[in-house]
Design brief:
It is a single chain. This protein is of the alpha/beta class and 418 residues long. Helices cover 40% and strands 18% of the residues. It has 13 helices and 14 strands. The strands form three sheets. The chain has a seven-stranded mixed beta sheet, sandwiched between helices. The protein has a five-stranded parallel beta sheet with strand order 4-3-5-6-7, with helices on both faces. Helix 1 (43-62) crosses helix 10 and helix 11 (314-337) packs across helix 12. The two termini are 40 Å apart. The model is unreliable at 1-26 (pLDDT under 50).
């Protein structure tokens, strides 16, 4: 049990007493399960993203909860390992959680079938199995953010725009963390290379991704690409940025997929000055200029506390807020549809499939989650390092959406044959 980190937000009892209309009404608390990595190889992500999630739930609870119901979050640190992630799922089920925030592509792959068997909604924002965007095939797994396929399509779309609107005859390098997550975008990139007429060469970086001098040298001195797409995570992105800068390659010709795109990655590479021109793909708003972030800051100040330092790493912190906000929106939809009563996990799943027009003031993409599309359209933004900070340079867009949809259809057809 030492690896389990429990964080219960809301009241300590299983019911909360609320004064409504002069009378006493007992509203039952609702449990959310949250998997995280706070001590493993991607702890630099989890120790910022998960506090963002927790803070948003605390904000909701401070305002009376969801339709009168407070939320308890049971968080478990799985150290980016699959067996503890499976144990965490069983713990959530035992505790009566109505949904579960997943963490990590290997963990999501191991739990997809289990979620379906247990009829438990699980979210895998910006990671996991890209084909889970197909809600018919994966009825209980929800990417709720651009999958690796959608990120790859967006990266190529952006490269095409930067290279004058044509990719025919161009060269694009794809450097990736050599695990299932790193390999996930390959089918899309290979398809687009054929369709758009560019030469693609891949460069795998073995775990833990702290040594890639040979790959960077091969890219810059031998392949000499017109553009680079980087799909690295953990501590690898900072190593990559630093090595590439050292070889004199212009970072304006690089785009990082979502886990190679945080302030922490850039700072660890030597700072914003070193990374000037570096382009990043984002699926949540970046920075603090959003009503929801100001509300969280105000919550801390009302409590006489200083807002936590994690809020300064806005890329990852804001993603945690986005995930929590979508969880809460799904719960709100489910409670309303259930006459104000505590919903089942199945009803919360239906509530997630009813999310539409929910943007939190531009913080969340203009997504629409449906029974058929659990990804919500695969929307992303581009934020670029300019003048010592991340600046939005391309607003919400979808990259090669028809190609992504074709792959989803083909993947479903192949699954039926097998």
């Amino acid at each position: 049990m030492t690896r389990f980190v429990k964080s219960w937000l809301g009241v300590a009892a299983t019911t909360a007493t609320l004064a409504l209309g002069g009378g006493q009404v007992f509203a039952q608390d609702i449990v959310f399960g949250l998997q995280c990595d706070r001590t493993g190889p991607t702890a630099n992500v989890g120790t910022v993203l998960c506090p963002g999630y927790q803070d948003y739930i605390a904000l909701v609870n401070s305002k009376g909860g969801v339709e009168g119901h407070k939320i308890k979050v049971l968080e478990i640190d799985h150290e980016y390992k699959v067996p503890p992630a499976i144990e965490a799922h069983e713990r959530f089920k035992k505790e009566g959680a109505v949904l579960e925030g997943l963490y990590g592509t290997p963990q999501t792959a191991a739990l997809n079938k289990k979620l379906e068997e247990d009829k438990m909604l699980g979210t895998s924002p910006g990671f996991g199995t890209a084909s889970a965007a197909d809600g018919k095939r994966y009825p209980y797994t929800f990417p709720i953010a651009a999958s690796y396929w959608s990120q790859a399509g967006a990266a190529v779309e952006f490269a095409k725009e930067k290279l004058g609107g044509k990719l025919k005859g161009k060269k694009i390098a794809y450097i990736f963390y050599d695990n299932p997550a790193g390999k996930e975008p390959l089918p899309i990139l290979e398809d687009l290379a054929k369709a758009e007429g560019f030469e693609m060469r891949t460069f795998a970086v073995p775990a833990p991704g702290l040594e890639m001098g040979a790959q960077v040298l091969d890219i810059t001195a031998r392949f000499k690409p017109d553009f680079i797409i980087a799909h690295l995570f953990g501590r690898a992105p900072s190593v990559f940025i630093k090595d590439l800068k050292g070889k004199g390659f212009p970072l304006s010709k690089v785009v990082g997929l979502v886990w190679a795109s945080s302030e922490a990655d850039i700072i660890a590479a030597g700072g914003m000055g070193v990374a000037e021109g570096y382009n990043t793909i984002q699926f949540a708003g970046v920075g603090k200029d959003y009503p929801v972030i100001r509300d969280i800051e105000a919550m801390y100040k009302t409590q006489g506390k200083t807002p936590p330092k994690e809020m300064d790493s806005t890329v990852l912190y804001n993603r945690g807020v986005l995930v929590a906000a979508l969880h809460v929106e799904a719960l709100r939809n489910a409670i309303k549809a259930n006459g104000g009563k505590v919903p089942t996990s199945e009803q919360v799943k239906n509530g997630m499939e009813a999310v539409k027009g929910f943007t939190l003031g531009g913080f969340v993409p203009p997504m629409e989650i449906t029974p058929a599309d659990h990804e919500g359209g695969g929307w992303v933004q581009i934020w670029t390092v300019k003048g010592g900070k991340l600046v939005k340079t391309k607003d919400w867009f979808q990259g090669f959406r028809p190609v992504i949809q074709k792959h989803l259809a083909d993947d479903a057809a192949n699954a039926k044959k097998s």
